[in-house]
Specification:
The protein is α/β, with parallel strands linked by helices. It has helices at about 25-35, 40-45, 50-65, 90-95, 100-115, 120-135, 150-160, 195-210, 215, 230-240; strands at about 40, 70, 85-90, 145-150, 170-175, 180-190, 225-230, 255-260. The strands form two sheets. It has a five-stranded mixed β-sheet. It has a three-stranded antiparallel β-sheet with strand order 1-3-2.
Length: about 290
């Protein structure tokens, strides 16, 4: 008797799947996807130990059992990577939420992801930086990532007296060496903003620094603004333009620039090395020094 070949399931269509019993690694994967908003297969493989085959199979099971979602918008998002992108699904929320308040917070972030879906490439750019920063810190045990906030969570923190903030960075984080803290804002530039508009945004950062505005909302008086770009040419152009952002128009050490082609999940260390361009200095700079 000749058996009919199995029909290959389409990537974005759910179907029957083998029974699933969640493992601690499964729960850790769900937690990461909830925290990062979007993660692709390559990023998840870099964050979790185990064979590629086993992890990919678990991701598939988590998808077919509605713990994870594969947003269909990724098909039209013009992503540089062919890896499948995951977000959290309803059963994943149920697993992670310890009480009604936490469930509400997770659901709010899930809804934020759905709202952000048309900007998936931008969201994945932020995730890629954060993943690579996390990996780079593994070889720098003296440095800790003690805070990361993005999206609506950051916007809420930046509100002063109930007013919407004039400046909302893509993300905010703090690196701690135990001797000194390095607060940083992240700007993920996709090359869609004119240089003039971008410099105006940097001027807002400079004004916030001069007027100590972030001290009222985030409790910081000093910070750096890290801008990641799609390529070196864009990074060079924005760095040159950034000389116009400070009052003296000489360039500020506050502003640092790097192309995302300089780092990746297989070479994350560049983020913590002297590989950042700065409008004030001719030499490459580090975030921590």
């Amino acid at each position: 008797m000749i058996l009919a070949p199995k029909t290959r399931r389409k990537k974005f269509e759910r179907g029957e799947a083998d029974p699933l019993r969640l493992t601690p690694r499964d729960t850790a994967i769900l937690s990461d996807v909830a925290e990062y908003r979007f993660l692709n297969t390559e990023q998840l493989l870099s964050l979790h130990e185990g064979s590629r085959r086993n992890i990919v199979e678990r991701l598939s099971l988590l998808y077919h059992h509605h713990f994870l979602d594969r947003p269909k918008v990724q098909k039209a998002a013009n992503l540089a990577s062919a890896h499948v992108v995951y977000s959290l699904d309803r059963k994943g929320v149920d697993v992670l939420a310890k009480d009604a308040q936490e469930r509400q917070g997770i659901l709010r972030r899930v809804q934020e992801v759905k709202h952000t879906s048309p900007l998936m490439a931008h969201a994945l750019m932020i995730s890629q930086f954060r993943v690579c920063l996390t990996l780079a810190l593994k070889s720098r045990p003296s440095v800790k990532l003690i805070r990361w906030t993005q999206g609506n969570d950051l916007k809420v923190l930046l509100r002063h007296r109930g007013e919407n903030p004039a400046l909302v960075p893509d993300a905010f984080f703090i690196l701690d060496t135990s001797e000194f803290k390095y607060p940083c804002f992240l700007e993920a530039d996709r090359g869609t903003m004119t240089e003039e508009r971008f410099v105006n945004k940097l001027r807002l950062y400079w004004r916030h620094y001069r007027e100590d505005r972030f001290n009222k909302t985030l409790g910081i008086s000093h910070f750096r603004v890290l801008t990641i770009t799609p390529n070196n040419a864009r990074s060079d152009n924005l760095c040159r333009a950034a000389k116009e952002a400070d009052d003296r128009k000489q360039g500020s050490g506050m502003f640092l620039f790097m192309s995302e082609t300089a780092y990746g999940t297989t070479r994350p260390d560049a983020i913590l090395q002297a590989a950042w361009k700065c409008p004030k200095f001719e030499t490459m700079q580090e975030i921590i020094h």
